[in-house]
Amino acid sequence: MIRVLSLLFATWLLPGSTYAAARLGDYATVEFAPARGQTFAIPVLLEQPAEVEINLYTSDGDLLRTLRSPEPLPPGTHTLVWDGKDAQGIVAPDEAYIPVLKVKPANGEEQIDDPRTTSGGEVLEDLRVEITATQDIAYTLPAPARVLIRAGIKGGPMLRSLANWQPRGPGRNIQRWDGRDSSGLVDLRGEPNLSILVTAFRLPEHAILTSGNTALDYRRYRTQQGWPERLVTPDQMTLSRGATRLSRYYYSPRSQDADPRVTVTLPQELSRMADGLPLVKLGQTLPVIADIAREDRWLMNESLYEVAFFIDHQFLSEEEQGYVPLTWLWTVNGLAPGRHLLTVNVSGFSGKVGVASTLFIVAE
Questions:
Q1: What is the pLDDT of residues 167-207, one digit of tens each?
Q2: What residues contact residue 133 under an 8 Å CB cut-off, 6+ apart?
Q3: Which domain holds residue 33?
């Protein structure tokens, strides 16, 4: 059953205004939580009477919901209110949604204000990244943006993805982090060569961010809707707007933002210590198996990828034309007796990196 959204209008005349015949207005905030019953007011500025329609699109270009005025509206500023639901009454998953304004004056041509045609994708610089007193990661965005956050070792492996092009609002943001790698084996906050990457690109103007929907994620929602992926080839990407650089990740389908889930496995027949860690001997040659979860392999099969191995954050070996499952024959040498960390990075040329680690003991 399609639920009809009520529209709330606040109207006043703007004599002598200089704005375009019809456009979207600015928001007091860009975020709201429809899962908690919140609504979002979308201002529309008119210079002449017109029928008004707002089409809300996903960041992949799928039409989520259409809001319409029940009758032509007079000149002034009007507010259409979105309850955060799609056309079927489903609360939209947490994501960024783009309103496209369409107006039809009584005596004139239809006009469209589409923020995607003039904004979005601009690479943001100087995010003022810092580690807080609670060891979380803080950064500042000048505008709503998609953010990538990774933790790793300078000159060594990437060890954890904390945000994969997730939408975030403007101002100071905090990325909570327990300091551990993706496998939860080591605390990285004391590492002298710890490196934190925070990079971002701007969302289109007037983007609306939803939050608080713990019951439905965006990728599963798109699958349920049966929407096809819209792949943009490199020759279709515009990587600048005037003198401003645009991120190539702006054009990626959002369902492909996730990194693949990776495993690294030592032989099961190895002796085990009391804590379950495998015991290896110097001079021993071992088959180490790196693999990608079967349901995630499609994320990497769109392009070539590399498989790299590290011991205690030091690079050891790399297979440049990667495939999985990959068996690496490792001869244990140059390690002191005791506990060590083996890490694998599976890195795609599209920017995705899967990471996994395992601990082992070198026998005395």
A1: 999 999 999 999 999 999 999 988 999 999 999 999 999 99
A2: none
A3: 22-117
Which CATH number belongs to the domain containing residue 169 in this structure?
2.60.40
Domain assignment present for residue 94? The answer is: yes
CA trace torsion 266, 194, 347, 236 (10° rounding)? 160
Q: With bands split at pLDDT 50, 70 and 90, how would you rate the model's confidence at 1?
A: very low
Query: Interior CA angle at 319 toward 316 and 231, to 5°?
Result: 130
Amino acid code (one letter) for 228: P
From 94, 117, 140, give the residue that closes a domain.
117
The structure's pTM equals 0.89
For 360, other C-beta atoms within 10 Å of its C-beta total 19
Counted domains in the chain: 3
- Over the stretch 292-332, which tens digit does the pLDDT of each residue have? 999 888 878 766 789 999 999 999 999 887 788 999 999 99
Judgement on whether residues 267 and 357 belong to the same structural domain of the protein: yes
User: 3-class SS at 235?
Assistant: helix
